[in-house]
Amino acid sequence: MAMNVGSEGSEDDPMMEINTTPLIDVMLVLLVMLIITIPLQTHAIKLDMPQAVTLEAPPQEPSVVQLTVDADGVAYWNGESLSDISALEEKFFAAATAVPEPEIHLRPDRTVEYDHVAKVLAAAQRLGVTKIGFVGNEQYID
User: Fold this and answer.
1) Domain of 85: which CATH number?
2) What is the domain count for the chain?
3) How distant is the alpha carbon of residue 2 from its chain centre?
4) Whole-number Å distance between alpha carbons of 105 and 133
5) At residue 75, what are phi and psi to the nearest 5 degrees?
6) Whole-structure pTM over 0.85, yes or no?
7) Dist. CA 2–CA 86, nearest whole Å
8) Is 51 contained in some domain?
9) Residue 43 domain-assigned?
10) Which of 28, 42, 58, 95 could serve as a FRET partner for 14 with CA atoms 20 to 30 Å apart?
């Protein structure tokens, strides 16, 4: 009685199954090497953020000067009567050199001669006043 302990074929027959253990080992080594060599990805987003700037103080509101020329040709600077054109020129010079330059609201009387208003405007222009304007034009509508 003989016992057959092996396969039916002879020992010289080639083995039909592939030994996958060494292949899995090689793949695992390659996977570890790949993970190590890949640079770490940072999940940062590059943004150009605005820089903080210090702003200058808000500009001052210019003062308002009420310049009135009455029917007799007398000029009033904020209600103060000016005796002659030289006093008005001194006020214009101070206004032209002030920082910020005040706004001058010229309100001529309806019955004043244009010559008096023209002298006031000429003095303002000669002394460098740039912020001057007419107010009260509604009196000339009718």
Assistant:
1) 3.30.420
2) 1
3) 102
4) 5
5) -95, 140
6) no
7) 147
8) no
9) no
10) 28
